[in-house]
Structures are given as C-alpha cells and as structure tokens.
What we know:
Blueprint: H1 4-8, E1 14-23, E2 26-36, E3 41-45, H2 52-60, E4 67-72, E5 75-76, E6 87-90, H3 102-112, H4 117-130, H5 146-158, E7 164-168, H6 176-193, E8 196-201, H7 204-210, E9 213-218, E10 221-226, H8 228-233, H9 238-243, E11 247-255, E12 261-265, E13 271-275, E14 285-291, E15 296-298, E16 309-319, E17 323-331, E18 334-341, E19 351-355, E20 361-364
Helix pairs in contact: 3-4, 3-5, 4-5
Amino acid sequence: MTGIEDRKSLDYQVELRKATKLYGSFTAIANLDLSIRPGEFFSILGPSGGGKTTVLRAIAGLIELTSGDLLIAGAPVSGVPVYKRGVGIVFQNYALFPHMNVFDNIAFGLRMRKLDSEQVRSRVLEAMARVRLEGFAERRPSQLSGGQQQRVALARAIVINPKVLLLDEPLGALDRNLRIAMQAELKALQRDLDVTTICVTHDQEEALTLSDRIALLNNGRLEQVGSPVEIYERPVNRFVAEFVGGTNIVSGTGARAGSDAVDIVLPDGSTIRATTSLPVTDGSQLVVSVRYEALKLTKAKPGGGDRNAFGGTITNVAYSGSGSIVHVRVNDALSLVATCPGRPSFEQGESVFVTWDTGDAVVLPS
Ligand code: ATP
C-alpha cells in the first residue's frame, strides 16, 4: 500500500486524462478527464449505458483504454495487470468463489501475494472483524444472506490494503432497508480506512448520500463533476437537473433581465421570476428548473404579490408513506409536480395555488 504520508503528498490518487474506450466503432467513453483525490469517496453516476462500468473496469485493469492516460498513485498503469494495480474490487454480483468458505474467499488475494499463513490468518480475521463477520469463517457463500455475501466481498477487497477501492453497484442487490443500513456502514468503513473509493451507481440518492464528489456520465461523456450539493443545487444543464432529483422544467422567453434574476415569460403570457448566475438577455429562450420540493401548495390564494404564484387543478395525488407527490395542471402549456411531507392534504380535482421562492427557480445553461 502507498503509505499515508506518501499518499497525502499526492494531489490525486487516480487520474484519467482524455480517456477513451472504443468497442469496434462504438465509443463507450470519450475524452474523459477525471481526477480523484486521496481518501475521497467518489461516485460515478449515470443512466444505463453511460460508461460507468467501463471507467471502473479500466481503472481495475480488466480492460485497457483505446487512448488516453490512466494513473494510479501518480504512476501510469497502462499494461499493468489487475493484481499489480493495488485495487480492491467489489463486483455487482459479489463474484465470490462458491466452493470456498468465507475465510478462504477473503484470504485469496493474500495467498496470491504469497503472504505466510500467520500473516494471512491475522489479516483475514482483522478484515472479518471490520465488516462484522466474526464467526462466519467456515460458511460457504450459499449459506449466507445477500447482506453477508456483500460483507465478504468487501472484506476480500479491503484485506489487501488497496490503494483504491472499486465498488460496482455494491448495494444494488440488497433490499431497501438493508441498503440504507449498509450505506452507513460502508461510509463508516471507508472513512475509518481512509481509502480512496470509486463507486459506480445508477442510484442518485445513494450517490448523494455516500459521496464527497460525484461525476455524472451520460453517453460516455462527462456532464458534471461536483459535490452532492453542487450537483443537486447547481446542475450545469437540463440533463443533470432531471437525472438527479425530481424537477419541473419550464421554458420561456427572457424579460427584465438583471445580473442575478430574470423574468421568464411563458407561452400563455404569465411570468416566472427566476435566479440566474449566467448572463441572460431579454428575448432569449431560457429553461428554468424548479425542484419538486420547492413548490408549496395552498388552498387560499397567497398574498404579498408573489410573482411565482399559479392557480391550478390537482390531477393526481400519490402517497408514498413519508410524503406525497402531487401533480397540478396550471394550463394547457404548464403542469407542475410538487412533493409534500406526510399524508396528502389535497384531493384530485381540487383547486390549489402553487408558489415558490424566486431563489428556487434556477435558469439552466441551454
Ligand atoms: P449499466 O448501468 O447498464 O451497467 P454503464 O453506464 O455501466 O451501464 P457500460 O457498461 O460502461 O455502461 O457500457 C457503456 C457502453 O459500452 C454501452 O453502450 C455498452 O453496450 C457498451 N459496451 C460495454 N462493454 C462492451 C463490449 N465488451 N463490447 C461492446 N460494447 C460494449
């Protein structure tokens, strides 16, 4: 393992520079630049086919890039085989050896590295303790629950003291409650080990919950890299805004453009006041994002001359336990979705007013 002192002097633990992977004439990832800091929990998020697994497999050494550079701990790793890259990998389906017991599964990488049996034993037992698997050494994978198998896979990955921990949809096979519990454990373990971790997921909530930073990939290209707050609150385009969290997208023409706010005139002549960090001009076509949870619904007409207030009719109400999702039709051109905490206090067909703060309507770069 790269020593902590050495590692801290590195700016980046993993770097991709203009990384491109072609399968025949198909481009899986194109000109990708990614720099992952030591100790970071970095998620690669995106829709199916976006290129997430391709990036992970390239870092692992399971595939070679067609062009571009890949560095781990500051050193180029092109041509370096998987077992010499110092990466621990947790595969989506765990890929445990079915004929080996838990101890031998976890010991595999250490035995490959020719550690003596006493070292193997103490490191395996330490890894088992870290993932709370004490007492399971003799079990075969088929005798374990999904969550326990996940822990074995994690122990097998960390036991080699990896420079980088690679996780491919690590919690995807677990049910919701277990997934939430494992998210907390995984994060605590990662923090405790201080190991640079790259996690592939298509679950935006998981990426937001776990990550220091997130890269959003779509069609092999990078849409945005940033902290969960940056990605969620300052999406750089419509794709990011819609992929991460629920949002209403409204289009219109700019008017009364100022340095940090602008009116959006909708096709029916009504107006939304929105904030902007971009230079905007009167008459330009603008796209605005308003998060579901930013909308407030009231039965009485709101006072105060709020510009962002619309009357509408509820077309659907869905209760999901912790909250409700309410669809409101304002007019032929505008329907909005709002999420409200708790049980719904509205019914389908009811008239309501929808309001939001100007700061919650954000102009997106087109
Ligand atoms: P998912 O979330 O569905 O796993 P992903 O974002 O991980 O998707 P990748 O597995 O990286 O996507 O695949 C990116 C693209 O490259 C896809 O269109 C896929 O079909 C293609 N691809 C991946 N592996 C190969 C291969 N060996 N040969 C040809 N095309 C491939």
